[in-house]
Specification:
By secondary structure, the chain is mainly alpha-helical. It is built from ten helices and no strands.
Length: 269
């Protein structure tokens, strides 16, 4: 295992442990107001300070991680669940199916996730499911292209040609032989897309299209802190650090997984 993988795995494990801990314990209820101690600076009683309503920032950062990680994970699952089968099908079929996938990817990439979320919110209203759908739809062509390229390379291998000569069907070969061999590449892409999905969810919540009150969210915490940057900078500092560290940890994990999947890349450094 490389240093990059170890660092990414440790940071990711710590963040996941803290978020899971928030289901069992929080220093204060996230929505509990304490007006006499509003905008209190970080102290022993409130390590991350309090906001304009006296709510504990540490409790909200921990609770806000639930939404950010859940949206990121669900968006990646949606993108991989639809994109991987499409990519493999295009690789083994070729022709019009491959061309159709390419054109679909071009169309989706032409619309950023934020614009897709705006369109979804105009139809169904803002919310967590719209954020998952917007980011997930954007992830579909990403996973489709990765799966298509990896499956296309595997399709030329001798073991696939031997399976074809043995009379095995294309889709059986794709499921039983090709998919297990491209899982490392898909795992790398999943870690990277999870990092980007958390950034996208924070951006959507920042503009009011993500997680809605009363549930805490890192992006909305940054939005709420916008007018108080000079008087209470900790309101933006701690949720911003949470977004940065989580995205950085997942990016490190993805880079480390890429090194494990392709040792020649690590040795070339």
């Amino acid at each position: 295992m490389t240093t990059t993988f170890r660092a990414g795995a440790v940071l990711t494990a710590i963040i996941l442990a803290l978020v899971l801990l928030s289901f069992l314990w929080l220093p204060y209820p996230p929505q509990a107001m304490d007006i006499p101690h509003r905008l209190a600076a970080p102290s022993l009683a409130h390590p991350f300070g309090t906001d304009a309503f006296g709510r504990d920032v540490l409790a909200n950062v921990l609770a806000g991680g639930r939404a950010s990680l859940a949206v990121g994970a669900l968006a990646v699952l949606l993108g991989a669940g639809l994109g991987v089968p499409l990519g493999i099908a295009a690789a083994i079929s070729g022709g019009w199916a491959d061309e159709l996938l390419s054109r679909f990817s071009d169309v989706v990439f032409a619309f950023p996730a934020l614009l897709i979320a705006v369109l979804a919110a105009s139809l169904a209203g803002p919310g967590v499911f719209d954020a998952v759908a917007a980011i997930g739809i954007f992830n579909i062509p990403v996973f489709a292209r990765v799966a298509r390229a990896a499956a296309g390379a595997q399709w030329q291998r001798d073991y696939v040609l031997a399976a074809i000569a043995a009379g095995k069907g294309r889709f059986y070969i794709a499921h039983a032989h090709i998919l297990p061999n491209i899982l490392p590449s898909l795992g790398v892409q999943a870690a990277i897309q999870a990092s980007l999905a958390i950034l996208a969810e924070s951006g959507l919540s920042y503009v009011g299209l993500g997680v809605q009150p009363p549930f805490p969210s890192w992006g909305r915490m940054l939005d709420d802190a916008g007018t108080l940057m000079t008087t209470a900078p900790w309101l933006a500092l701690f949720p911003g650090l949470a977004i940065l560290l989580t995205s950085f940890a997942l990016a490190l994990l993805g880079d480390g997984l890429r090194d494990l999947a392709d040792p020649r890349r690590e040795n070339a450094r």
